[in-house]
Design brief:
CATH class of the largest domain: Alpha Beta
Order of helices and strands: HEHEHEHHEHEHEEHEHHH
Low-confidence stretches: none
Distance between the termini: 73 Å
Strand order of the largest sheet: 4-5-8-6-7
Mean pLDDT: 91
Radius of gyration: 25 Å
Strand content: 5-15%
């Protein structure tokens, strides 16, 4: 379904909705309003199908399909299955050899990626950022070394806290784009660093649908002196870690060849022994 601009609804989508016998809608009221805005008259049986009842509705929907009827899954905005209902019914259809087709349309993930100005050749979508502070910090920490461009969904009332957690885990100078209300009247895209995005998010009330795009980790951005490498290896050993494990850990942390860290450590040991 359109992200917000009804002009983005394709002729194929309108034709499909008009002729469908059954429609599984995330929000039946929003769906009815959209049909009215698009001038669509449908005769379909509309079935409520949202996150809270998705699992329990599967058997009913599969029975409709196995009886020879068609079924169209629609969500409030964007592509079903992408952080929206749809994945489970598609998976069950595949298991039962029931044909699954897609009507290409707007996607917040791809739209934000295109708007961001960040690399698009390799990217990953990580869904919604966790709601609680501890889970949110762990979530961003797990993405600290992700080299692909990262796409996320976030709620507007949590955007400042989310960006602060991102700055802590990824560094505040990482490039970011925050896309708000895409395709709608008050569409806005902020581009800059995470630190700058924090200031922007606190400068006014942020409303609407939010999609965040973050530049991937650049291994070449980390610089560390040989003295610091040796210090970290020694600290790990002092903490009870075997030398080979300490070297492996430090090399991985700074994305360096293990041989390089090993050689620096051996040189340091030789210097100590010579004195």
């Amino acid at each position: 379904m359109p992200l917000g601009n009804i002009g983005d609804a394709s002729d194929r989508l309108k034709s499909t909705l008009s002729s469908a016998s059954h429609i599984a809608a995330e929000d039946s009221r929003k769906f009815s309003r959209l049909c009215k805005d698009l001038g669509i008259e449908h005769k379909a049986r509309v079935i409520s199908f949202f996150e809270g009842n998705e699992s329990e509705r599967i058997n009913e929907l599969i029975a409709i399909l196995e009886s020879g009827n068609d079924l169209v899954v629609v969500t409030d905005a964007g592509m079903p299955s992408v952080s929206d209902p749809g994945y489970r019914i598609a998976r069950e259809c595949v298991k039962r050899n029931i044909a699954v087709r897609v009507i290409p349309g707007p996607s917040a993930v791809i739209s934000a990626l295109a708007l961001s100005g960040l690399p698009t050749d390799r990217f990953c979508f990580e869904g919604f950022v966790p709601r609680t502070s501890g889970a949110r910090e762990s979530f961003y920490q797990s993405l600290a070394r992700e080299e692909r461009t990262i796409v996320l969904f976030e709620a507007p009332h949590r955007i400042s806290e989310s960006l602060s957690a991102a700055a802590k885990a990824l560094s505040g100078d990482r490039e970011i784009a925050v896309c708000r209300e895409m395709t709608k009247t008050f569409e806005e895209t902020f581009r800059g660093t995470i630190d700058q995005a924090i200031i922007w998010s606190k400068s006014k009330e942020i409303l609407g649908e939010i999609t965040i795009v973050i530049a991937g980790f650049n291994p070449g951005s980390i610089t560390v002196s040989e003295t610091d490498l040796i210090r970290e290896v020694l600290a790990a050993e002092a903490g009870g870690m075997m030398r080979k494990d300490a070297i492996h850990d430090v090399a991985q942390r700074y994305d360096l060849p293990k041989r390089h860290v090993f050689d620096r450590s051996e040189e340091h040991t030789s210097e100590l022994q010579s004195h």
